[in-house]
Amino acid sequence: MTDPRRDDDPIDRYILKDAVEEAKAMGREGMAHPSTKPVLIGAGVGAVAAGILPIVTWPIGLIAGAGFMLYKRVRP
User: What is the pLDDT of residue 8?
Assistant: First the structure.
């Protein structure tokens, strides 16, 4: 029986490596990098959304929003 999700799929296999490389490039280039602004906007939206929700605190929302946008930039 074959596994429908193969181990040699580069999309799933290298996502962490690609995300780290993207974050390093964002750190080196600052606001000139094309991913910096969307990730910062996602962090802000996550922090505001967390402020509205009663259980989630703003740092968790900030990290979740930035992480989601970074994921969308690495894997559109």
Answer: 60
- Segments forming the whole domain that contains residue 59: 30-76
User: How distant, in Å, are the alpha carbons of 5, 7, 11, 43 from that of 67?
Assistant: 24, 24, 17, 8
| Rounded (10°) angle between helices 58-74 and 15-29 | 100
In a domain, 64, yes or no: yes
Kindly report, residue by residue over 30-46, the tens digit of the pLDDT.
Answer: 999 999 999 999 999 99
Dump pLDDT digits (tens) for 7-18: 566 556 688 888
Q: What are phi and psi of 66, to 5 degrees?
A: -65, -40
Phi, psi of 75 (to 5 degrees): -125, 85
